[in-house]
Design goal:
Two copies of one chain form a homodimer. By secondary structure, chain A is of the alpha+beta class. Chain A is 31% helix and 25% strand.
């Protein structure tokens, strides 16, 4: 074990924990190697942060392994940490031992040059070694932790809702089937597929949302949240759609739409502040190389007092705007991204929470308002992308829920247990959903969801 | 929003944060209601902790809603927190306002009596409201958070490995298929199923492990961990098998088997200590009602210095033991649970880490030892159940990996990217896996995995 007792580079460069003159071991990968007769330099990166540490070899002749160390090689270096005389770096390592652990030859795809994101997607098993994807995946981890911190500190319980399900929360039908049938020999009975013979004895699918099960949790534990994978089999090849993505879905008992909006606002500001405070290394990187407004965007949201308007008010504003929208604006139609961006960017120049959408365009579980025409839905819009959070107060009234579902033509016999929640100790409750991979696009400025997810799944792509 | 501005009961009973004489609002569910002419008592539980708070109504006539409040009803109570004169409780609430939010009638399945776990499994949408399943799901949440805390505090990055995959990490074949094919009309080409027509353009399955992808992460970011759902289509109806379960899989670059064992030991002790320190309410409940040795078991593991032996030594001990084992003991056979329990309970009376198993009975990715016969595998056994953690040092040598996979008859052409990790900057690396639902069985003393998972999936069961 001693051989591998290393100091991680983030402790040196970011946390400044290691005093000059310490004898230390570094373990990582060579980013660049420059050898001349009297001196050699190796930039080593160990994945702990964006920065490399420069290792200096003052007597290259003494290190025969040096000639086999090319870009990408895994190496072990022992040496003394010294103040660097070079510009732009505080420390360097004066090397006393150098071992090649795993070579990389000239065919290594990540030679020192810029690579397109398209190219890197094909080699997602190596791209995490680049500056960009190292930073993306580090910040992904830290923001995931911030999600847990936020809810745990507020007394929410983390609930693992099922991946394999027989309920379809959205009623959208864009689901993947899960089966152990031999596809060449599917059992049938009276001319129909006999799902009784399948693994679960019924048709089973991958979940599109944990919300319905989160409602079970909220009406028992009070405040819960989910944070897990969800799936859509939508055949969309856009930069914002993935077939598998992680969703965060808090659900709060005894909480109305105003409370829901308040928690969503606190949550988004908390995450953005966490990104700025705890992920400064990554945010500096994104701000420099990916999106020059990345930091400013988060700061702007944090300091904004969010605007609250109803859908009906939003429609009036859009109608009065005279903007050349592609999609028509009319009460009863969905608000499109272009409309959302107009509201958040031009009209209010801050995040906007729109509430009380028409019942017809929203899901069955949303609480019907007294006007009978709108429901307690809520979308949180931010500049640059529009909707980032969608939520609602849920219908807690048995009869109203039943009538609404029948109106939508749903088979209510499939929702026995969901009705039980309204039959026994029903209570006002609310929640919202935030797509984690899209949230990361917003924070990092990365423009394709295939690049914020480490192993994206999209139509015709499930490699690794 | 003001109407719902409540104090959660755990702040009163567990954290002692609310001073006597405070005017507060409680929101929760009536557990028991006792009404007499001059006084009424309602035990209210809000899901934040095991305990109920007793609400006292000294003038029942003034509260007409009282007669409609039965066990299970959702209620809102306003009142003054007072020191309780009754035995066994520190506080009670002197009620000034009482609202029925959602009634529950006599058909409510959770009337005040003991219910069998079998009965409660059928109503998993209500069982979280019971003392036992409330405690299980609260501790599940807290231990999940402890998992993140442990790794994040040690500089590990959380990696979301894919659910839908085309790799099969275990080579066991017990996988669920994921498809959007219309099962009545599966496209064929030249007599074979044409997977090119399926959603991903290839055969796709649910993952059995995130390990292979975690190796990608470790060889880029250094130390990573996964914590997500995994799936097995094994047709096992035991108390320890589920078809969907959450797994924790850390993977460390520059880490050998000894380092792996050290981290596994630290991890398990950390989680158990967290259960005792941060989940005292739940642990007291389990220790009283579920398993009278629950707390003692965790304390025992925490204070033990784990025994380290090789598989070969373990076989010798088992052969010499003269125990009447059901399964024969012989070098080359798997060590069964009965053997593991003998070692951890009778022979050593402490947790045992067994290393260096025969190559033939272990997975292709494990590092081949110099003897050519064994691999750098590691199992951590604990008293009562046997193996709780399984891990290994991974094979980092290209040629050895290739030979090993060919020996096992695997199609190495499917593992291009996995070989690339050995071709470019390969490094010693190790990791292990811990099934989260089974870990919770161990911590809580609950004897069936269907009861530590909120929505268990097992053969012929995928409800909710």
């Amino acid at each position: 074990m001693e051989y591998f007792e290393r100091i991680k580079i983030n402790r040196i460069l970011l946390k400044d924990e290691i005093p000059v003159d310490s004898e230390i071991i570094l373990l990582g990968w060579a980013r660049t190697v420059r050898v001349s007769k009297n001196v050699a330099f190796i930039e080593i990166n160990d994945g702990s942060c964006s920065g490399n540490l420069q290792a200096v070899i003052s007597n290259p002749d003494q290190f025969p392994s040096l000639k086999n160390i090319l870009t990408g090689a895994a190496i072990r270096i022992k040496g003394k940490l010294i103040a660097s005389p070079a510009k732009g770096q505080k420390y360097e390592l004066a090397v006393t031992e150098l071992d090649l652990l795993g070579p990389a030859d000239e065919t290594y795809p990540l030679q020192k040059k810029r690579h397109s994101f398209e190219f890197l997607r094909d080699i997602a098993h190596l791209r995490m070694r680049t500056n960009t994807f190292g930073a993306v995946n580090r910040i992904r981890s830290k923001i995931a932790y911030a999600v847990h911190k936020f809810f745990q500190e507020r007394g929410f319980y983390y609930l693992h809702t099922p991946m394999i399900t027989t309920s379809d929360a959205e009623g959208a039908g864009e689901v993947f089937r899960v089966t152990t049938f031999d596809l060449k020999n599917i059992p049938a009975k009276e001319g129909k597929i006999d799902y009784n013979e399948d693994f679960f004895g019924v048709e089973a699918f991958l979940t599109v949302s944990g919300q319905l099960e989160a409602e079970i949790g909220a009406l028992a534990l009070g405040d819960v949240y989910t944070f897990g994978p969800t799936f859509r089999s939508e055949n969309s090849n856009t930069s914002r759609h993935a077939s598998e993505f992680w969703m965060i879905e808090p659900e709060m008992a005894f909480c109305d739409l105003a409370g829901n909006a308040r928690i969503a606002t606190e949550f988004i500001k908390y995450l953005f502040k966490y990104a700025l405070d705890e992920c400064a290394d990554e945010m500096d990187f994104f701000n420099k190389w990916i999106d020059k407004t990345a930091i400013e965007t988060l700061e702007f949201v944090i300091k904004s007092e969010f605007e609250h308007i109803t859908y009906t008010e939003a429609i009036k504003i859009l109608e009065a705007s005279k903007e050349p929208f592609e999609f028509p604006v009319a009460w009863g139609s969905d608000i499109q991204t272009e409309h959302e961006r107009y509201l958040a960017e031009k009209k209010f120049n801050k995040p906007v929470i729109i509430t009380d959408y028409p019942k017809k365009i929203k899901a069955f579980y949303m609480r019907v308002n007294d006007d009978g025409k709108t429901v307690g839905a809520m979308d949180l819009l931010v500049p640059k992308i529009g909707e980032i959070i969608g939520g609602s107060q849920r219908e807690e009234r048995f009869d109203v829920l039943k009538a609404h579902m029948e109106e939508k033509g749903m088979d209510i016999s499939l929702y026995d247990w969901y009705f039980d929640l309204r039959k026994y100790g029903s209570a006002p409750h609310s929640g919202f959903g935030l797509g984690f991979d899209r949230l990361l696009m917003y924070i990092t400025g990365m423009s394709n969801i295939r690049d914020t997810s480490p192993f994206p799944r999209v139509p015709r792509w499930a490699k690794f």
